[in-house]
Amino acid sequence: MADATPVGWRFLYSGRWIGYFTMLAIFSVACVFLGNWQFDRRAEARAEIARIDANYDAPAAPLADELSDPSAFDEDAQKWRTVEVIGEYVGDPYLARNRPGRDGVGSNLIQALRTDDGRVFFVDRGWVPIDGHEAETGGIAADELPEPPSGEVRVEARLRASEPTIPGRTSVGRTVASIELPELARLTGTEGEAYTGAYGMLISETPAGEHGVLPEKPERDEGPHLSYALQWYVFIGIACIGVGYAARREYRGLNPDSSVVREQDRRSAERKRRRGLSDAEEEDALIGG
């Protein structure tokens, strides 16, 4: 009689199960979004590796040739390119504060270089162990900072893009919140004549001067983004399996006497019986041995 009016799978149309399916859909969309985000981050990391491979060890080019437009910079084509420039360091150095280094948090030493064609190129002369608080309060003695070479100097540096403004943080005294070149041009009074698209990370100076800790070559590592991306899609599969298992359990509870459930129970009992025999045989073999 139970088979005459089986509930079947009609319970899946209930409000409760529609809610489950809705949550599954929302969870799946979120996982796809996060997975694609990780794929995008992997693509960015691979693009950075490509830039390092193409530009980091390329021969030095004259600054004026590489940056024909002082306000422009092509991140993909020019990041890490080595440029050579001849000029003279001018003015006081500035400190880009809150920069991590091997000895903790310090600052990057930024110095203006007036080139032999009259423009101003900002050079990052390395990391110094002066923390943000000390820099902001102005408690910096002149002899604490590395001295650049005086007179004409030949500089080799790697190009980096001007950094963005950090909301809520401003320049204080001789410190800046980021290496934002238009702001540095304003502070040094070189607006209209400074390179504002890119600055240079120091490689070498001739004649040599004192400088901070220079950065090492960046690692060619795309990170774990691929595994993280695939992980989010695995979570979708696990969630779908969980919902399917819950639906099957409820089906069995609502249709205990259906032919489908009886056949499933018969097969399950047969599998358990076979596993039991195998276990007994294994125990007999162990005892007999």
From TrEMBL:
Q: Where in the cell is it found?
A: Cell membrane; Membrane
Main localization, broad class? membrane
Membrane topology note: Multi-pass membrane protein
Q: Where is this region: Disordered?
A: 257-289
Q: Provide ranges: composition bias, Acidic residues.
A: 279-289
Please provide the record's keywords in A-Z order.
Cell membrane, Membrane, Transmembrane, Transmembrane helix
Q: Which InterPro entries match?
A: Surf1/Shy1, Surf1/Surf4
Q: Where are the transmembrane segments?
A: 17-37
Q: Which organism is it from?
A: Leucobacter muris
Q: What is stated as this protein's family in its record?
A: Belongs to the SURF1 family.
Name-wise, this protein is SURF1-like protein
